[in-house]
Structure formats: structure tokens, C-alpha cells
Batch of 2 targets.
Target 1
Amino acid sequence: MLKSIVLLVICIGLSLMAVSAEMVNVIDFNNNSVSVDAPAHRIVSLASGATEIVCALDGGQSLVGRGSVSTFPSYVMNITEVGRNSNSPDLELIIELSPDLVIADTMLSADDQKSLEDAGIPVMIERFMSPDRIMTVIKNMGMVMGKKERASEINDFIEKNQKLLQERTADLKPVDMPAVFYESSPTKPYNTFSSSSSFDDIVVSAGGINIAGDLGNESISSPEVTPEWILQVDPDVILQREPSDDDYTQDDLKALRETIISREELKDVQAVKDGRVYVISGKVATGVRSIVGELYLAKWFHPNLFSDIEPEAVHEALIKEFYNLDLEGEYAYPSN
């Protein structure tokens, strides 16, 4: 009798699961339709931006695999590593984990994507840089994970700050916008971003003009320039993005900024003369926190328009509300 009751309970449970599950279709960054049985309970993330979104939505409960570059929130360090990132996934291990979804960035190769899909695993390819795209990804992941309400809360936070930024920069004329050189990292001096990169979107939305916007093409989003070219264009602002794998103190970021300022070949550039040289952690240049990076840029570009805005306070509120964590470390210099 007891055995019959147990079997009946199991059957009812399976029936309820079948009823509650539904096929959700979303369009990813590559304009591909991705079909997922929702809610997805087992997710592998190959991009740090994706990992942050999953954790903001459900506290990481559905995360069963991550790229080793995903280190935030800190509790994800206990999640199985499945390669470094989208460029170097451990396909065999991912398939063993039987995920309901793999989410990656555009570094995932077509061959690797096909291998996963041939194994019956849906793959979503995304970009995690501009707040506009991030809100689309959050909305899509909310549907896939059965967390629509939570996704709306996160997007409301981002949109509120983005609207403030847009309203204050809406009437700017080109003459009021600083010319900006955005260096991709300290290990790649004079490597920058063209208009085909989402980092260009962030500069523009913060009220700046990317001096390298017209360089490169869709296949070359990070062109390399020369110091002579920079001197000729003579930007008003120089930015440098710091590796998102690293944690920084204020002294670390100050030293990185001083390294840029001390380059002999840049001494006659207007940005250096005026001290308008800034460094920013990649952690606030992508993902859920990209709105924080945008606010830092806007305040650097237009200090008079954003004198009352404290990006660090916005960052602190975001981390507390959606990750239940206190803000630690430094993410930009100068920070005010």
C-alpha cells in the first residue's frame, strides 16, 4: 500500500512539473531564436556578465558551471569551472553537467556552439557591455529562469539611472562633448575601440565623442593606433579600462593612471595637460554594473552636469539590493 502511495506521489509530482514547464523562445545577440524549457534549473555561464545576471536573478541557485573568469559574487567560486571563458570552454565537462542552457558571449566559436547544440543543449550568445543590451538580456533570462518580476526590478534600477543620464546629456551639442581616447587595457597600449564595439556606445551615451569611432569595421572592433595619431587628434579625455579579473585598491588605480600620464609621447596631449586621465575597472564596464561605469564616465566628461551624482553610491545600492552584499574594493580613479 505504502509503495503505491509513493508511486502516486511521484507521478503527481512529475505531472505538475510537466504542466508548469513551458518552452520559451528568446532572440539572442546574434539574432538567433533560442528555445529553452522554462524555468531553466541548470545553467552554465561562460561569461562573467552572464554569471552576474544569473546570480542577481536567483542568487546563483541555478548555476552549475562557470568560466574561471567569473568571480563575482564571491560564492560562485564554489561552482564547477568549465574552462576560462567563452573562448576556451571545456565542452566535455559542460555536456556532463547536462545544463538546460549555456549562455556565452560572442567569443564562443561556431564549432563549439554546434557541439553543444548537437548534444541537445540550447546556447544563447550575448553581449554584456551596454546597459541597453544588458536590460534585454536580463528580461530574456528572467523569462527563461521563471524570474520575470525580479528581472523587472533589476531593469527598473538600471533604467532609472540611464534615464537620468540621458536627460542631462540630451541637449549637448558636439562642441560640448569631449573627444575621448578609450584604451582597452594597460597591457595593450594604444589599442582602442571603434564604433562596432559596445564600449563606443558607453562613451557616446555618457556624452562623449570616441575619437576612434570611425576606425576599424565590424570585424575589427579594437583597432590599434599610434601615439603620433593620438597627438594629432589631441583628445580632451583619456580613459583606460583595467582587467576585470583583478581587484584594486585606490593606490593600485592611482599608479595605473600615473603610468599613462608619465608616457613621454603623450606629454603634449591636451588630456594629459589638463589631468583628464581616468582609469576604470572592467567590472563596472560590463554586465549588470555597466550602468555604474556609464555614470563614472558621464561625471568625468561633464562634471557640472553630474555634480550631485555619486557613482560609488549607486554601485553600493545595486550590490546591496540585488546581491545582498556590501561594496568592497575600488573601481575607478579619480572617483570624484
Target 2
Amino acid sequence: MLRVEYHRGLYLPDLDLWLDAAEPRAACVITHAHSDHIARHRRVIATPETARLFRHRLGDAETEELPYGERRDYGRYALTLYPAGHCLGAAQVLVEADGERLLYTGDFKLRENVVAASARVIACDTLVMEATFGEPHYRFPPQEEVVSRLYQAVDQALAQRRVPVVLAYALGKGQEALELLLRRGYRVMLHGAVWNVAQVYRELGVRFSGEFFRYERGALDRHVLIAPPSCRQMPMIANIAQRYVIMLTGWALHRSAPYIYRGVDLLLPLSDHADFDELLRVASESGARRILTTHGEAGFAMRLRALGFEAQHLASHPPRAKRSRGQRALPLD
């Protein structure tokens, strides 16, 4: 079977093929445009949406666009990209070589993404699987329940003349949160980073369910503000005297989350990653004879072996986000 290695990115030495390398390479397949999955490669292979978002984040680059479902032959191997459900353009990568089908999920979820194509399970021989939430207590509630709790919190904050501040990453979850809030009819303002990516989403054909506005100081009355989590202790948010801070993260189910995310009024487990049950489903339904896990901890591969799968942990989380004084940091979600 194809050798699979992890060196700050996935590497298939038999094919000299890099995927999601964190250091510049001559050529690299990119599953999506989050900062921990990209670098200034000489040439990038990605979906058209990810290629555009890559250029938005890192500037001009040589990009080869490979739409979902189109099989392309590269001589020693063939590539096909499938939706990953993680953010706009996010892809699972199917590599076919020497009669073997190897699937790299990248970051993914099977639950609905309201502003991106939904993922499905792809049949393969080798499954290289992102397993961020590979522990049993990470079972997310039904999405409609989480969204209902979001709406209730926003309604209550507005009724109390407070400013609802929703913390969500600038690429992906920020646009999911925007669409969910617009569907309810809220007036929404966006931090500049979230706004800029939302404009790229529009350029790429995403139709949001209403108008939204770029953040203006002093203009937040009766609006919901969406901002990246890194802003929660910055003046933009800290100076809002009557604020109600909601953070959207799968780590809301972490045992220590209330202590880690101090200053947040409500933690909601709205995640763009697969939960424990989804990970088990992909392991089972893919038909893979070999499963390699990335991200997460080694315990998930051990659980798979206990269930009869041939599984091995390939790599743990990338370097964790910078922690605040006195707080434990959690990986990105």
C-alpha cells in the first residue's frame, strides 16, 4: 500500500505528492484555505473556490483549479476532489495509484453547511482522516437545536438593549453564522476580516439571505456583530459596555471550556468539524482496509482498533493557538 508520512503536512513519498503542507513546496494539493493548511507554494492544486480564497489570503500564486468530481490524471496518480462540508471550497482528496484508492478527508463534517457543499462518505482502501473531535464526549447536539439556542440568546440580548457579539472564524464559520442570522432577519455587522471573506463568497456565487454591513464604530445599536475569536479581548469588543458574547466552537463541549473562554457569556457547540459519531460513521462506511488519523489525539485510533479496524495515529494537532495568560489553549475549530 502507498506509504503515508506526516511532516507538517501529508506526504506520499511513493508519488512525491504533498497535501496541506505547512511549509512552501514546489507543488501541493490544498484542501481548504485556513491558515494552518496553506503556505506560499510555487503551485497549488485546489477547487476553484479554495484557489480564489488562497489568493485572497496569500496573494497571487500559480493555481490549478480542479472542480468537485472531476478526475484528473497526473501520470503516476489521478486526483478527484469531493466536498468536505468544512467551508466554501473545502475538499476531500481521492488519490488513485497502483490500484489503490487513498482518501484524505482534510477538515470535514457530514452535517449541513448552509453556505458550502455538503460532504458524503467516499469509498476507499486507505482513509487518512482528520479526527479533531475523536473522543466520545464530543457528540454535537442536532444543529437545529444549537441554532435555536443562538436565536434565543440574540433575542434576549437585543431585548435587554445589549449588543450580541458572535465569535466565529473569519473564513468559514463566520459566513455560516452570517447566513444563519440573516435567515432570522437580524441586522448584522461584520468585523473587517469576516466582511472581506464574505465578499469573496459573494463573488464565488454564494447568495446570502439578506444585506449585511461592515463594522462601524458607534453604529452597533440593534445589530449583531460577528468577529473572529481573536478579537474578544481587543478594544473593538471590550469597549462595548453592554455586550453579550457568544462563541461558536466545538470546544464548547470541552470539560474546561468555561474556564478557558473567560469573558464569553455563552458557548455554543456549532462546529465545522466532524464529531465523534460522524468519525465512526466515515470509518465504517468508507470500507477502508487501513485508517490513519491526523489531528486529534492518538486515543481515537486506539478506539478504532478496539472496534476491529486497522488504524494508526499519524499526527496530533498542529501547534496550538497562542494561549492567554493563565489559560489553557485549545486547537483551532
